[in-house]
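Risk register update: the risk of archive-format incompatibility is retired. Evidence:
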Amino acid sequence: MKKVIPILCFIAVIGLVYTSVKDVIYNQFADLEDTSLQMQGLNMNPREVNRTIEDLKKRPTSFKDHVLLAAYYGDKQQNNTNKYALWLIKHYPAAPIFHDPEFVPPSHAQEALWNKQLLKYPRNIKVMANAASCLQLNDASRSIAIYKKLMQLQPSNHKWPLDIARIIQYNVNPESGPSVANANVAKHALKYAQMSFNLAKSNEDKLDVIDQLMMDAYYSQNYPLANEYALMVNKYIPSWDPISHNDVIYHSYMMQGLVALRNKNISAADHFLLKSGQTSGSAPLDSFGPNMMLAEQLLRNGQKAVVLQFLKECSTFWNAGPNPLQHWITEVKQGKQPDFSMQDNY
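Archived output:
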């Protein structure tokens, strides 16, 4: 019996060391800047995909090759289980490829594996954050529960309540506008967004939260508060780098216009629509295009000329690949109401 106890202690120590080493490895990989790998994987052609698959046969534990293929198949959705993503979840659950679930759309197999990893690493911040991010698309309540645990572990981190606010806002239906149903959802999201803003330390972080606050306040039907948040943007924009925040500036002008329109001030709404269109663009605006909520509502109010001018101004920054701008311009000229619904979430 005396010999058994030291052996058990030794095994326990080895187990703790192993777990610690694994956590260190995960943390190292969580710091990798592998966004370029994800983009490379998204843009691979069939020959590059086949070559990467052959390379993976030679080095089956290659982190790089798994990221490339996980991103490729995640984007193409050609493989429901995406075995490459499953391998990454199993071996590197803290890898930053999982920060954006749209790169690797989750499957039921992935969700089950994330739940196992959460049991295995119940207090690993990066694993928990990745799991919450990936689960939010198919299991919002589970994702929110994880973010609430993260709030307990890191009560001063503004990101966790902000992520909760964003998940809740997914239930807002932009096509319904500031309806009663939307207001109830948005008020819930607004509570967490305000909590996040109070925790945010840097101007950069505060701007990120203000972008959320404006929409939550608007859909909550608290229009004075929405306008107040829109006016706060200039306070936090750094004078030395305004271009990096043009998407927030765009949303600020758009929100001021939406509030003006609610107050029946169409000329002010026209002014803010044109101001938003004069934004010089940003990575999100250039790639995904601008939110069209204000343009849509002004067009319904007969402001055809202003909306046409706005759409033409948008073409100066929204020119990365094909987009519907010219089609919309043609429809507006023909007296039609374009379908802007796909842009309501940008």
